[in-house]
Amino acid sequence: MYTTKRESIQTVPRLFSGCHGVEGADEQRREAQVGDELTMMSGMKLMVGLYARSARGPGSAIMRRFGSEPAGSSQHSSQQQQKHQHRNTMTQDPELRARNRSIAMWSVAIALGAVGMSYAAVPLYKMFCQATGFGGEVRTAAAATGGSTGGSVLSTVNFYTPLVDTVPRVDEKPIKITFVSDAHLAMPWKFVPMQRQIYVYPGETALAFYKARNYAEEAISGIATYNVTPNKAGIYFNKIQCFCFEEQRLNPDEEIEMPVFFYIDPEFSEDPKMRDVRDITLSYTFFRSDMISAEQLQAQAAMAWQAR
Amino acid sequence: MSTPPKRQPPRPPLKGSFPLDHFHDCSRLALEYEACLRAHSSVTAQCRDLAKTYLECRMENNLMLPADAETLGFNKEGTSNIDTTKATVPEQATAGAFVAGLRKD
Fold it and tell me: The domain that contains A271 carries what CATH number?
């Protein structure tokens, strides 16, 4: 928008200083400063002058001595009284008062109306989106299953299962997905991925496995969370089904494969910001989800380490 | 870059969570899939049939909500034509790179 810093400084004073010619910004600033000083000085002089010339001030004696009448003396007082009366009648004028009142009412009404509109905007926007679906994608569950036999099963379920409507982009280079696993210290589990990396095409649905083994002597529940690195690629990583966010309970000495079924959105290839992303790392961390005391935890951990 | 890039908050999976296969009904298929991946240098496009079989096994054993193969991305126009000769590992531009702390099991 601004080509040089000087230009940008120029536009600001021009906006606020009315009809100045095309001058340098420094000159304008200096002018403004000088102008300010002059106004201040003249203001002060005016005040001082008024005080000196006023009828009751100390300077009035001096002024009378030198022959000039101070302000506020009898000649000027009648004029001033007239002005004062006139000023009173101005606000007493009924027409003017009525107009002022109506203006005041209008402005208050507009302000309150604006506040009301901001509250009404929330449901209105929702209605608008449902009607037009502008700028987003709105699908119903029936449309997603296409009315196939699977639809009857899904209609009994309450969550919305979308169609994985992606075509694998075989023309693009495959993306390397690396798997990393972590288990919290309190977990006597061994949690590892069963493959270190896979190469997937954008849009292709891929299956990957993690393996978890419970080394403790009692059943332990855990919850997994995941993270996708680099952060900007996280929006393209869509998980269809996995084992995260729900409690998974492993019996003692049990080893189980946990699948992750996901796909990378094919729009990944079109995004210029993703051009340098060749590697995506998916990391899962398991945390304990049952509450045990510290002593129990220590005992469990000791047994588990021995068993490993 | 005074602030770090915003991390995407973890989103729930589209179809929910897989129940655990405590009775190892589909473990054999999982191991077969892993063997296939190892044989084809970890390119999943070459092992899609085994993946489909695994998921169908899960559905049979009540370990997954039944869904059409199309819904899961199999049997689509593009997938059956995946030219497996083109599905190869890209040249390792970062050969010798490593992830710090990653154990090589």
Answer: 2.60.370.10
